[in-house]
Write a structure and sequence with these properties.
17% strand, alpha+beta, three-stranded antiparallel beta sheet
Length: 220
């Protein structure tokens, strides 16, 4: 039997229905079963993976996740979260020598975090959220953070590619330029993210004072 892939809106709707009926779900296997069952009501040929429903549920703000970890033989800290595919952010600490060193890395969206020993998710627990879907602005900010994480991942690959070769100097120049696109200048990810946040703050401020203005106008 051929399978069909539902779009994100269809999957999101199925997740909402499932979570409205279940405040907590103990395993991803059960979560997947319930979502697939709901999707089958629309089309019996719909198929979706556990990773996809987890990612969509988190990105849309429909679910919260708790993670039970297990040990792994992975050495490198991830730039992209293996749970929800969003950006991982480094957590820095100042050493006794005055240098800043990365002590762990955590996801910018879900609870996944790793330290010197890289642990991987072993079990998920799902629960319903109260706030509902994520705003378009927050969606944009998450995409920008993810872009920054992918750029950092690219710089690591470039460094590995040119290390010990006659092109190491050119590699350093390229890495510097890429890092600059994250946090230097008006066209950087940092600058664009800051401007998006300011626009949101200004809009919120106007909304907050609107009732008072209407009230003043009525008194006159």
């Amino acid at each position: 039997m051929p399978h069909r892939i539902p779009d994100e809106e269809t999957v999101s709707s199925a997740i909402k229905t499932v979570m409205n009926r279940n405040a907590h779900i103990e395993t991803q296997t059960e979560f997947l079963r319930l979502v697939r069952k709901e999707l089958a009501k629309s089309d019996p040929e719909y198929r979706v993976s556990g990773e996809r429903i987890r990612r969509i549920g988190l990105e849309r703000g429909i679910i919260k996740i708790s993670i039970e970890y297990r040990e792994s033989d992975i050495d490198d800290l991830p730039h992209i979260c293996p749970v929800c595919r969003n950006a991982m952010s480094p957590v820095m600490n100042r050493s006794l020598e005055g240098e800043y060193v990365e002590i762990k890395r955590k996801c910018t969206v879900c609870p996944y975090a790793v330290g010197k020993t890289v642990l991987v998710p072993g079990k998920y627990f799902f629960s319903r959220t109260k706030n509902g879907e994520i705003s378009p602005q927050e969606t944009s900010l998450r995409k920008l953070r993810k872009a920054g994480a992918k750029i950092r991942e690219a710089t690591d690959l470039i460094n590995e590619a040119v290390d010990g070769t006659e092109f190491a100097g050119r590699g350093e120049e390229l890495i510097s330029a890429l890092k600059g696109s994250i946090d230097s200048g008006e066209a950087s990810i940092k600058s664009i993210s800051r401007d998006i946040k300011e626009v949101v703050s200004e809009s919120a401020g106007k909304t907050a004072v609107s009732p008072k203005r209407n009230s003043d106008r009525k008194d006159k």
